[in-house]
Amino acid sequence: MPLALIIFDLDGTLIDSAGDLAAAVNNMLAGFGREPLPVPEVRGMIGDGVAMLVKRALAARHCDHADAARAAQAFMRHYESDATSLTTAFPGADEALKELQAAGIPLAVCTNKPARVTAEILADLGLAQYFSRVIGGDSLPFRKPDPRVLLPLLEAFAARPERSLLVGDSEVDAATSRAAGVPFVLMKHGYRRGPAEEIPCMAALESLGELPALVRALPL
Question: Class of 18-81 per CATH?
Fold first, then answer.
């Protein structure tokens, strides 16, 4: 396998976390005296980090005068207290990661979720063992779609962008990969906001189980 590095997004790519994120959002909203949001609606708000998720949830319940920073803190308190009771790895994740790791390809995570809770989730779901490096939304002064979030990973593994992959589920991931010059693989089971057909990618997969075969088929 010719790849020097595969970088994975987390939410919507490796894990289905919408249930726990929605629970934390709704606990936060309850603190402002607002009705809960249905999980499918929260699912459509995921992908740009905690601040944007909270901002969208507040707007959806017309909390126009809420203190966004206080709301984000409340969200994180609820989320960190129970981040995996409703969260699962997508089917095929463990097997695909195991096969890619066995092939000697370094694997990393780059997510807009805070680093500490990311590490806890990966550990709880038994996925931490596969990743050499994890970059969270608070690890650097910038986050996706800023392409600079990928640079520490590329440098750490001496990986050229064109010999790496970013595997993600959304327009944000596609924009990050395009700006960094890293080929992009779209997971269609994720949290994108528009049709998969409108997201530029080298391949769009239905399942993580398809990823090792795609990697094996890449030209040397």
Answer: mainly alpha
Structure tokens at 190: 């994720």
Catalytic residue (one of 9, 11, 169, 173):
9
Name the architecture of domain 5-16+87-216. Answer: 3-Layer(aba) Sandwich (3.40)
| Residue 64 appears among annotated catalytic residues | no
pLDDT tens, residue by residue, 165-202: 999 999 999 999 999 999 999 999 999 989 999 999 99
Q: Number of C-alpha atoms within 13 angstroms, CB side, residue 147?
A: 13
Which residues have a Cβ under 8 Å from the Cβ of 96 and sit 6 or more positions away?
Answer: 208, 209, 211, 212
Record the pTM: 0.94
Domain spans of the chain, in order of start: 5-16+87-216, 18-81
Distances in whole angstroms, Cα of residue 72 to Cα of each of 76, 135, 163, 191 = 6, 20, 37, 21
Write the single-letter amino acid at 190: G
Tell me the pLDDT of the chain averaged across its residues: 95
Tell me whether domains 5-16+87-216 and 18-81 share a fold.
Answer: no
